[in-house]
Write a structure and sequence with these properties.
128 residues; alpha+beta; three-stranded antiparallel beta sheet; elongated
Length: 128
C-alpha cells in the first residue's frame, strides 16, 4: 500500500529532475553559442561569420533559434544602425540567441503552462 502511494511522487520528482536538467543543459549551450558569436564579433568578423559561429555552437540542439547581432558606438549612448557598417573599434558588440526548448515530459507543464520554454541569452564584448 505504501509503495502505491509513494511511487507517483517519486516518478514526478524523477521526471522533473530529468526535464529541468535537460533545460539547464540547453541554457548552457545557448550561453556558450552566444559567447562564441560575440567573440567573433569583437574580433571584427562579418555578420555571416558571427551567425556561422553561433550556428556551430547550437548544432547539437536542433530545433528553432534566432540570432540577433548588434552593437553600440564607442560613446556608449547610441546603437549601431546595422552590424555591417556600424561597428567601430572601442564599441560594444552584442549577440542575442533565443532558443525554443520543448519539454520532454508532461511534468514540467504542471509548473509552466506552456509546452515550450524560451531560452534567451545576450552577451556583450568590446570590439577590438
Amino acid at each position: 500500500m505504501e509503495f502505491a502511494l509513494v511511487v507517483p511522487i517519486l516518478l514526478v520528482m524523477l521526471f522533473g529532475i530529468i526535464d529541468f536538467g535537460f533545460a539547464i543543459n540547453r541554457y548552457a549551450i545557448v550561453n556558450n553559442a552566444a559567447r562564441e558569436g560575440v567573440r567573433e564579433a569583437s574580433l571584427g568578423a562579418s555578420e555571416a561569420e558571427i551567425r556561422a559561429a553561433v550556428t556551430r555552437g547550437m548544432s547539437d540542439l536542433g530545433g528553432t533559434f534566432t540570432i540577433t547581432v548588434g552593437c553600440k558606438k564607442p560613446d556608449g549612448t547610441t546603437n549601431c544602425t546595422s552590424w555591417t557598417g556600424g561597428q567601430e573599434s572601442g564599441g560594444i558588440a552584442i549577440v542575442s540567441v533565443t532558443f525554443t526548448h520543448e519539454w520532454l515530459t508532461p511534468v514540467a507543464e504542471l509548473i509552466d503552462a506552456d509546452d515550450v520554454l524560451q531560452i534567451s541569452k545576450t552577451n556583450r564584448m568590446r570590439i577590438e
